[in-house]
Amino acid sequence: MDSKKRVGTRALPKMGSQDMAALEKHVGCSHFPVSENPRPLANMLDLLLEDTGTKFPLNTALIFEGKSYTYADLRRLTRSLSAALLEQRVQSGDRVAFLLPNCLEIVLCYYACFEIGAIAVPLNIRFSAELLQYAINHSGASVLISEPNLFSQIVKNRSLLPEVERYYLTSRDSEFEGARPFAELLNPTSDLTPKTPSGNGPAAIYYTSGTTGLPKGVVHSHFSLAQATQNQIDQIAITSADTTLILFPICYLIGFGSQILPFHQCGATCVLLPRFEPEAALAAIATYKPTKIYGFPKLYNDLINCPDVANYNVKSVNFCFSAGEAIAVAIQDRFQRLFGLEITEGCGMTELQIYSMNSPYGQKRKGSIGKPIAGMELALIDDSGHSISTARQIGEMIVRGGSMASGYWRDRQLTATTIRDGWFHTGDLAYRDEQGFYWFVSRKSEIIRHEAGLVSPIEVEGALYAHPAVLEAGVIGVAAPFEGEVPQAYVVLHPENPPATESQLIDFVRSRLPGYKAPARIIFTDNLPHGPTGKIDRRTLKERALAPH
To answer: pTM higher than 0.70 for the full model?
Structure first.
């Protein structure tokens, strides 16, 4: 690609007039950029359970808290919920919000919305009451489905949720006035048949926490979710014989879009944990013998540091995926020793879903995010927007493909800023090596700008993780006279290993990285702040560093 050439775009065929109007009104985007060779999809979302329920009615679709549900069970329950929502006058395009932990009900809510053309709004269970109120109002949800503990966070502010007309709770005995039991929605009085939703219509809005400001409502269409589903099936060769263990909340797209949808389309089994706890996860692996798991760096670090990890049989797993942020090589090496399996690194985000990955079953380039998966395109651009063709030159990653979101709900400006000429601008810095592998460097906003060169916080953290005294590390940049910014590290020491001093750790990093990349200061702490998906919350660390002492 010419180094001064700007990247172009290609759009799908035109949508129906109603879909286009909805997207232009709420998103400011009326086309879906796709790869140059889009592949046909086996199923759109509204037909997924219908098809799988016909092919594999007695296969186990879901296991939750020891109870199993077949595909026939899920199909029957989803049909009931769909009919009940239609009885409650929920129409195509209406938003149905659900504030639910991992449970059977959240799975049914997703599928019922897809079937009737309503837009699913899965709310982040780790949001504060204020952020939940914002997301509910911003989405314009008319129905809210929750459970008592989570609902209690927002019940005080019900008067501030003017568009919500109906509340349902998963407990039969509710202390909240005006809230009906969810069980009523599984016993409709009629068998209403929904109209088939358009593939290009909005299917779900995911509110992401981001690093600044209020949450952003990421809009995915039926097509983009279905395309990502097919991408995962093709990329990791999912079959009906597979079982996946879901370790994080499926109110996040990584859990639902990368595991529930593709594994259910293939007639495979999903084991859903109520919440992630290292010992419970290891016990579930030993009990249910999953073949494939997905996670984040912190999750894998927690697993390998579980005191009894060596006592569990984990040999059934043949694929482990990690995304969200680069995972330290030291964590990968220890995981491989304990599990007998390499972690497959890749990259994804709510707006794009998984778009790059190392070979799932072949040779990997440890530390890299691999190459673009089939159906997705990845390029690097410089600060002027020109494409980069030189190996190892750092630039911003831009991505396009069928699994890309159509934009941001009720935010035309952000949509236009982020999706330009059909490419999604990630705000992530990376470089490409001579073999075409991509290496994640940092978020643009988190890169440390030292006078000697750019410093990746993740690279410094990776060097610290290689020391046996370090359990967890987070690195930020702080201003320094004459040097621009210098790294400052926050470290949690491993309670079961001999400790290390600040100077010992700084010298250790200097032995592995150029001197200007070594921390100027290390602050020991009992714990580190994390975002909703387990990433180090460097914004909070930055606030700590700037706070008066």
So the answer is: yes
